[in-house]
Amino acid sequence: MKKATTKFRGSRQTTEVYVNPADGTAVLNDMYNSLKDLPWDVPVSGTIYGTALNYKGALAALGESVNEKPYQAPPKAPIMYIKPVNTIISYGMPIPLPTDFSEVEIGPALGIVIGQTATRVSEEQAMSYVAGYTIVNDVSIPHESVYRPAVMQKARDGFCPVGPWVIEREAVTNPDELNIRVFINGELKQQNNTKNLIRSVRRLICDVTDFMTLNAGDVLLVGVPENAPLAKKGDVVRIEIDEVGILENHVVNENELVKEVVR
C-alpha cells in the first residue's frame, strides 16, 4: 500500500489514505474499500495547466504542418493552456456530452501536483517541488488547431475529471517511465508511456517556471498522447496509470444532467 491524499464529498479537509494504485483499493478507518465504495471529491485545489504537443508521437502526427504559417517551425517552448474551474469533476462523476456533438476526445494525462511555490526552478531541483501525482482526463471536443486557444473545445463544463487521489512523490519510481492505458467499456483503446515525452517531468517544470510561477496545489499536465480515443453517450471511460491509480467516469448527454438539476 502507498500513501496518498484525497478529499471526500462533504469534507472541507483532505484526508490521508493508503492505497493500492493497481486495483484501486483504499484503506480508510482500518477498512479496505474499493473505488466505488467511497464518495470521492476532487483531490486538488489549484489551477490545472495543460501542455500541448509534449508527446513525440503527437508532434510527429502534425507532419510538415509545423513548418507552415504562422510559426514555420516546431514549438521551442511549452504550449500551455488552462482547464478552468468549471471543467473540474471528480472520480465517478458524469462527463457531459454537448448536445451538438456525438463524441468527445479522451485525453489521459499524468498530473504533476506542485508542493511549494516554484519560480525559475532548475532541472536538478525540479523534483523537490513535486508533492505527488494524480490522473487527469483532459476531455475535449475533437479539433485540429493546436496553436490557438481551444477554449470552446477544451473548457466545457465537466471536461476535466481528476483523481481519485494524489499519490505521494516517493511512491512513484520514475514518472518518466509510466504506462498509461485508456479503456472504453472495458476495451483497451489507447496505451502509451511517459518515456515518450519530449520534455521530461523535470524539464517541463524547469521550462514552465522559467516564465510563470506555479503555486502549491497547482497541477501541471505532462501532455496527452497521440491518437486520442473517442467516447460517446453511455460509454464508461477508465484511465490507468501505473503506480498512480485508476480514474473512471461515464459519458452522459448534457441535457440529462440539466434534468437532474431541475428535479
From TrEMBL:
Task: Output the Gene Ontology terms for molecular function.
Answer: hydrolase activity
Q: Where is the Fumarylacetoacetase-like C-terminal domain?
A: 47-252
Q: Is-annotated flag, keyword Metal-binding? A: yes
Arranged from A to Z, the UniProt key words for this protein are:
Hydrolase, Metal-binding
Q: Which SUPFAM superfamilies match?
A: FAH
Cross-referenced InterPro entries: FAH, Fumarylacetoacetase-like_C, Fumarylacetoacetase_C_sf, HPA_isomer/decarb_N
Q: Which family does it belong to?
A: Belongs to the FAH family.
PANTHER family recorded: FUMARYLACETOACETATE HYDROLASE DOMAIN-CONTAINING PROTEIN 2A (PTHR42796:SF4), FUMARYLACETOACETATE HYDROLASE DOMAIN-CONTAINING PROTEIN 2A-RELATED (PTHR42796)
Q: What is this protein called?
A: Fumarylacetoacetate hydrolase family protein
